[in-house]
Write a structure and sequence with these properties.
Layout (H helix, E strand, L loop, with lengths): L7 H14 L10 H30 L3 E5 L3 E4 L2 H7 L3 H10 L4 H6 L4 E3 L3 H16 L3 E6 L4 E8 L2 E7 L10 E12 L2 E5 L2 E5 L2 E13 L6 E11 L5 H5 L3 H4 L1 H8 L15 H24 L7 H4 E6 L6 H10 L6 H11 E4 L10 E3 H7 L1 H17 L8 E2 L2 E3 H7 L3 E4 L2 H9 L3 H6 L4 E3 L6 H7 L2 H11 L20 H26 L8 E6 L8 H17 L8 E6 L7 H18 L8 E6 L4 H7 L5 E4 L11 H7 L4 E3 L5 H8 L5 E2 L4 H8 L4 H8 L1 H11 L12 H8 L6 H19 L2 H14 L5 H13 L8
Parallel strand pairs: 1-4, 1-12, 4-11, 12-13, 13-17, 17-18, 19-20, 19-22, 20-21, 22-23, 23-24
Antiparallel strand pairs: 2-3, 5-6, 7-10, 8-9, 10-11, 14-16, 15-16
Helix pairs in contact: 1-2, 1-4, 3-19, 6-33, 10-12, 12-13, 12-15, 14-15, 20-21, 21-32, 22-23, 22-29, 22-31, 28-29, 28-31
The structure holds alpha-D-glucopyranosyl-2-carboxylic acid amide.
The site of alpha-D-glucopyranosyl-2-carboxylic acid amide (GLG) has 16 residues, from α6.
Function: Allosteric enzyme that catalyzes the rate-limiting step in glycogen catabolism, the phosphorolytic cleavage of glycogen to produce glucose-1-phosphate, and plays a central role in maintaining cellular and organismal glucose homeostasis.
Family: Belongs to the glycogen phosphorylase family.
EC number: 2.4.1.1
Length: 797
């Protein structure tokens, strides 16, 4: 049965049935949580039918499959996704209303599955949804972290981290698969037997599989996200227990579980932690075994593996897949080493997400030899084989006693991709310049994208309705159809409706702010939004400096006709990243002073919303007017938030960095507030010895803002609190905050002037929506399918 031929009455019956027979609760006593689980199970029933249909089609056709290996899948809430993609909104809405429940309240009751840090993890989640929408048979493989990204709150303006325990509630979307559990070993030694290397790992854990179905648009196809959970090989030590050593008896279990206990709260600096390497090997090894098991069950000859498996490495985190696959083919299945390397390379491809040198993982050879002794040997052999392929032109995989995971991923992949045009060019010129010279056809570009189902259709129902009324529904899985809106942009009726949708979104947001955070904002003000991880290269401090400078100007001249503005920040700082945490503290301190200023606060407010996550982004982006994408050029590989804002009609104020470049090319220079140095100019500027001082001298606004901060205007109880921040900015200023300040200030004034003229503003906003259709992750996935994977879509029955 088609999911959407279901009636609201069927849906209601199904909800009640699950409430009674799964949850054992009668309607009179059910909590919101119980209703949400009952609804999830009712929706899941429909989803499972479609999932089986897709799986049957795949088993029958035995096509090449895509395997997406990622340490992070930032999937957020799943219930609404499933309802929307199965087209069950009406039935679910009516059924819940019949039961006296509010649809939104039930949806919002679901905790966010925060199994990722930021862009990299969210990209993986968008890709899973697009793969399912397109009908490309695929598996996502990752780790089922017990604790996702930490929960953030503020105490006296400082970030506090608390564990996020999303699994403490029943998770309705997963199925444990006991039949496919794998044993994963670490440590031990390598011996020789009959001319073959035999690795006997000393320590072993079980990788238990948990499957979540991922459903595509209209339920046409569904794939599986398989997450591994670490469990002990032997439950607990009964002998020790009987001796009264209770803690010791439980030790093996605790040890094993640490592997899938927490998500590392950092995606831009390498973590020199043994546990991190264990996590990486754990999920990569389990996934590769699973892939080979499936391949062998279909009876293929090993040399044909690349015809059946496209294995994508999301960043270097699963880069150990190269040596591990060689080991599985060579040591365990007897394939000749050269052939094993070539076969593995035929399957593997690697996506690079950052040029920041500190984020390209390196592991000490000592640690690698101790944890994965056979892999260390194989890395040496791969290194030699690679050198033999390219006589006289050596790029080593090891340096200064460390193994370079970026180089290993590159060497073992048949394709390597960057995530925006600029980033891919810079990859060729910088981090992988030598390898690119050796393999000029290996690097390709696949500019990131976002799924329109979640980031427009679900997140922004008002705008979606207007779009569908204007051009029909085809845009939902063919986002470039948005260009048909172009004809309506000059129609005042359309622009009015467009403006109305934005206004109502802003009103909703203002109401939510008042109710949830106790803050009042004027929905007519310019909502200026910067939401993303806190990092120096993303330059939240540039934004807050401009805010302070603006505050000073308004104070000096309150009657000058200022455009009311609300600066909204949200984002987490890695717990160990001290400077980023000081930036958070500074923004909160500035907010406290500015929001209490009777003269300026009607024109300028500052908010830092705690605990930024996918759900908050879904709420905030449709209500935004201006999208802050102000990284130092050359540092942000792509960005994907920038795409979500553009689609939802918030023009960018930004630098020529990452995908901003392509966004501006498409939406038009008039509809993008460009400022700042280019990546090349950044390099040149950095070479000027006192660039920061020069910039400060040239712009009294900047000097004044820095002075106010350093004199304690925002930290009266501790005047020197921001001495470090100010010293950084006036000294080395590596990210060139000062040098870009004046250009940023000017761009902000241009944005304000445009905003003051609603006709001009809404036209610009609508141009962003109409021209951002290319940034669908469906387009990105099609690119991977043709350029990298060589796979084609299948249809379910
Ligand atoms: C990275 C980059 C972002 C990029 C994302 C997805 O920093 O610029 O958009 O991956 O490719 N670590 C990240 O979030």
């Amino acid at each position: 049965m088609e999911a959407y031929s279901l009636t609201a009455a069927d849906m209601r019956d199904s909800i009640l049935r699950h409430l009674a027979y799964e949850l054992g609760t009668d309607p009179g006593h059910a909590t919101l949580h119980d209703w949400r689980i009952a609804l999830s199970l009712a929706v899941r029933d429909r989803l499972v039918d479609r999932w089986f249909a897709a799986n049957r089609a795949t088993r029958a056709a035995q096509p090449k499959r895509v395997y997406y290996l990622s340490m992070e899948f930032l999937i957020g809430r799943l219930l609404e996704d499933a309802i929307v993609n199965l087209r069950l909104e009406e039935q679910a809405g009516t059924a819940l209303a019949d039961l006296g429940l509010d649809f939104d309240a039930v949806i919002q009751n679901e905790p966010d599955a925060a199994l990722g840090n930021g862009g990299l993890g969210r990209l993986a989640a968008c890709f899973m949804e697009s793969l399912a929408t397109i009908g490309c048979p695929a598996f996502g493989y990752g780790i089922r972290y017990e604790n996702g990204l930490f929960r953030q709150s503020f105490q006296d303006g400082r970030q506090i981290e608390e564990p996020e325990d999303w699994l403490s509630q029943f998770h309705a979307w997963e199925f444990e698969r006991r039949d496919v559990a794998q044993e994963i070993r670490f440590g031990g030694e390598v011996t020789q037997k009959d001319g073959r290397a035999v690795w006997t790992g000393a320590e072993a854990v079980i990788a238990a599989a948990f499957d979540t179905p991922i459903i595509g648009w209209k339920g046409r196809w569904a794939n599986t996200l398989r997450l591994w959970s670490a469990q002990p090989l032997h439950g607990f030590d009964l002998a020790r227990f009987n001796r009264g050593e209770y803690a010791a008896a439980a030790e093996p279990e605790a040890l094993a579980r640490t592997i899938s206990r927490v998500l590392y709260p950092d995606d831009t600096t390498g973590q020199g932690k043994e546990l991190r390497l264990k996590q990486e090997y754990f999920f990569t090894a389990a996934s590769l075994r699973d892939i080979l098991r499936r391949f062998e069950a279909e009876g293929g000859a090993l040399a044909d593996l690349p015809k059946k498996a496209a294995i994508q490495l999301n960043d270097t985190h699963p880069a150990i897949a190269g040596p591990e696959l060689v080991r599985l083919l060579h040591d365990e299945r007897g394939m000749a080493l050269d052939e094993a390397i070539a076969t593995a390379r035929g399957c593997l491809s690697y996506t690079n997400h950052t040029l920041m040198p500190e984020a390209l993982e390196r592991w000490s050879e000592d640690l690698m030899s101790q944890l994965l002794p056979r892999h260390m040997q194989l890395i040496e052999r791969i290194d030699e084989a690679h050198a033999a392929e390219m006589p006289g032109r050596r790029v080593t995989l090891r340096e200064n006693g460390e193994v370079k995971m970026g180089e290993i991923a590159f060497t073992m992949a048949h394709k390597v991709n960057g995530v925006s045009a600029l980033h891919t060019d810079l990859m060729k010129e910088t981090v992988f310049a030598d390898l690119h010279r050796l393999h000029p056809d290996r690097i390709v570009n696949e500019t990131n994208g976002v799924t329109p189902r979640r980031w427009l259709l679900s997140a922004n129902p008002r705008l979606s309705r207007l779009i569908t009324e204007t051009i029909g529904e085809g845009w939902v899985d063919d986002l470039e159809q948005l260009d048909r809106l172009e004809a309506s942009i000059s129609d005042p009726g359309f622009l009015d409706a467009y403006a109305k949708a934005k206004r109502e979104n802003k009103q909703d947001f203002a109401e939510w702010l008042a109710a949830e955070q106790g803050v009042r904002v004027d929905p007519e003000a310019l909502f200026d939004v910067q939401i993303k991880r806190i990092h120096e290269y993303k330059r939240q401090h540039l934004n807050i400096l401009e805010t302070v400078a603006l505050w000073r100007e308004i104070k000096a001249n309150p009657g000058a006709g200022w455009v009311p503005r609300v600066k909204i920040f949200a984002g987490k700082a890695a717990p160990g990243y001290v400077f980023a945490k000081e930036i958070i503290h500074l923004i909160n301190d500035v907010a406290e002073v500015l929001n209490a200023d009777p003269v300026t606060s009607p024109y300028l407010k500052v908010l830092f919303l705690p605990n930024y996550n996918v759900s908050l982004a879904e709420r905030l982006i449709p209500a935004a007017d201006l999208s802050e994408q102000i990284s130092t050029a050359g540092k942000e590989a792509s960005g994907t938030g920038n795409m979500k804002f553009a689609l939802n009609g918030a023009p960018t104020i930004g630098t020529l960095d990452g995908a901003n470049v392509e966004i501006r090319d498409r939406v038009g220079a008039r509809n993008f507030f460009l400022f700042g140095m280019t990546a090349q100019e950044v390099e040149a500027r950095r070479a000027v010895p006192d660039h920061a001082r020069q910039a400060i001298q040239a712009d009294p606004r900047l000097g004044g803002a820095l002075k106010a901060i350093s004199q304690g205007a925002f930290s009266p109880s501790d005047k020197h609190r921001y001495r470090g921040v100010v010293a950084n900015l006036t000294g080395q200023d590596y990210f060139l905050v000062c040098s870009d300040f004046t250009a940023y200030w000017d761009a902000q004034r241009r944005a304000e002037a445009a905003f003051a003229d609603p006709a001009v503003w809404h036209r610009g906003a609508a141009c962003n929506t109409a021209r951002a259709g290319w940034f669908s992750s469906d387009r990105t996935i099609r690119g991977y399918m043709t350029d990298i994977w060589g796979t084609v879509p299948l249809a379910a029955e």
